[in-house]
Amino acid sequence: MDTTPEQISARTAAAWTVALAILGGFTGWAWDGPFLAVTCALSLAGGGAVGTVLSRRRIMAAVQEDQGKAAALGYADGIADMVVLGISAYRAVVFPLSGPDAVDVAERRARRRAAYRLTAAEGLPHQIREAAAAALEAIDDGGDRRTQSAIEDLMKAVREQRHRA
Questions:
Q1: Does residue 75 carry a pLDDT above 60?
Q2: Among 50, 97, 130, 138, which residue has the fewest nearby CB atoms (within 10 Å)?
Q3: Cα–Cα distance between 25 and 14 in angstroms, integer?
Q4: Is 90 within 8 Å of 112 (Cβ atoms)?
Q5: What is the value of pTM for the model shown?
Q6: CA nearest neighbour of 80 among 39, 41, 40, 132
Q7: How many contiguous H segments (helices) and E segments (strands) does the chain have?
Q8: CB 117 within 8 A of CB 50
Q9: 81 or 103, which is more confident?
Q10: What is the DSSP string of 72-98?
Q11: Is 49 helix (H, G, I), strand (E, B) or coil?
């Protein structure tokens, strides 16, 4: 079963039209018999169909606008999470738990390049970009306590961005 907003809207419109036709039929039958039942059923169903056709364009425009906003927010949330992950991976190679010589220089450069590329990604909110730049600067300067504080600030910015939406 297709569950796109267009199909759901079409099925809802059809259901309302049928419901109005049945209501009109029963009302017409109760008032004056079969002729008025058919007349009321057709007029209510026709009015319902015209109403759904006229309102459908506006409803679909609103749905598409909301889908666009949701997609943009989802992309921003996803790229923000990737920035945190990339910067954390870079931090892990700069300050390895097994000692300063545990990670070779090529790995360090590759992780640094990946972290900087993620920070420069399009669609990343400005607050997260600033916090990520501060975290990268702290890592590059080599201060472990300052780095920890900067990464906590970055994660706080990501949480705030997610709750703002």
A1: yes
A2: 97
A3: 16
A4: yes
A5: 0.61
A6: 132
A7: 5, 0
A8: no
A9: 81
A10: HHHHHHHHHHHHHHHHHHHHHHHS-TT
A11: helix
Please give the Cα distance from 25 to 3 (Å, whole number).
31
Task: Return the structure tokens found at 149.
Answer: 């504080």
d(CA 135, CA 148): 8
Query: Cα 116–120–124 angle (5° rounding)?
Result: 125
The token pair that represents 146 in the structure block: 């300052």
Contact criterion met (CB below 8 Å) for 94 and 44? no
What percent of the chain is modeled with pLDDT above 90? 21
Q: How far apart are CA 115 and CA 34, in angstroms?
A: 75
- Secondary structure element (H or E) that encloses residue 42, with its range: helix 34-94
Please list, in sequence order, all residues whose beta carbon lies within 8 angstroms of the beta carbon of residue 103, skipping any fewer than 6 positions away.
93, 96
